[in-house]
Amino acid sequence: MENAAAVEAMEGIGSSVAVLAGFVREATGAEAGSSSVAGAASLVGAGSVAGVGSVGAAGLGVAGDPLRDEADAWLDVLAETARLEARVAALKVQAGAGFVAAAAAFTAPDASASERDALEMSVTAEVAGALTVSEGAAARFLEESARLSTNLPLTLAALGAGTLSWQHGRIMCDETEGLSAEAAAVFEAHFLDPDAPNPARGCPAGELTPARFRAKARYWRERHHPVSIEKRHHKSVEDRRLEYAPDRDGMAWLPAYLPADQAAGIWNRTTAAARAMQGPTETRTLTQLRVDAFASWSLEPAQRVAGGVDVPSPKAQVLVTVPVFSLLGLSEEPATLDGYGLIPPSMARRLVADGATSFLRVLTDPRDGAPLEIGRTSYRVTKPMRQWLRLRDAKCTFPNCNNHSLDNDADHILAWADGGGTGVANLGQPCPKHHRLKHSTAWQPVGATRHAPPGWISPMGRSYPAEQQDWEPPACQNYR
To answer: Cα dist. 423→78, 397, 414 in Å?
Structure first.
């Protein structure tokens, strides 16, 4: 994308945003019933999408009523804002593809496969830093940008025109994944080209909610895919997996990607078991009973926990940071489970009492919440420096990386061969991926101390400071 075109697009979007913002400021400062926002649509193009601004707001007065007109104008502002978001998304796609192309120009024609892989990792990390997202999200964005820029021109054009949202664009990318360029073109034309041999019926794709559009797109894809569903299913079975996603309040998600018949069988079996447990004295909901049945079947040996179902305590190496008084049962300060986050103190106490066979307990100072000591139960600490790094950093310190400490490597920041010592202040614990990136590109960790993890400097010279641990004093101060 030419720089002049990028500047022009940004200026156009910026002008539209400024106009909308001006009307919002004027309207929110005016008395009810004013028409201060009514001209927004005509000046920035709102209402140009079919159905927007053409019909009055039902139940908000009659035509010509100032209040109804103002409400209608606010909807026009919302619609135009959505169009601007789509145009910005198109510009981001072009910028992402442009950066990849510009970075590729630095690669020597005779570069090895490992050198090209290192450049790709570095480019992804650079984009992740610029967008303040994870590297996984950046990689997905760059993949979508490449697909939109090369195989889905109608989708990118609709984004740029504001008639298709970014969510719809991502669905187009998802549902054309694995298709040949020719099949993707037929798929895209079906939904976005009214002159296609077999255009989609009903309202335009951009006027469907993303969920509805996905359902239509997936149905059409399944019906018209050039490869039979039997072959595709056989291949997809190889990708089956179980995932783990921490959530708030001591909870987590455990989604599984598996064959549909197995998923349906598991769902039906747990539902039948849950219904069998229902009775006049059962207080749990069907949803709760279904989860409890699934957990009780999945875990052994069993231990009685809240909810009345036998489920076990986990048996794996963990690092649990526990406030002293929480461990003693004198306060309800949350503990921290390595790789997850805050957990209820009762969970921490249970882990201490009968938890992992390989276990490290960390007590925190009741005055400021900082680490007080690394204790031991059944796990013998033979590498205290390594454990201190785990405690200091908690995860890979590379910008936006979430790999928790058990997966990571202890590494010299200044290499031993270059005079670097082995003190904690010269050590980091990058995950294997970013350990390789450090040694194969210009990404460099900097500024570590005994109590602070290192930040990073990117090949473009951008600085990403370290993510500090948020030690906090406990809410309970009655230890004095």
So the answer is: 56, 17, 11
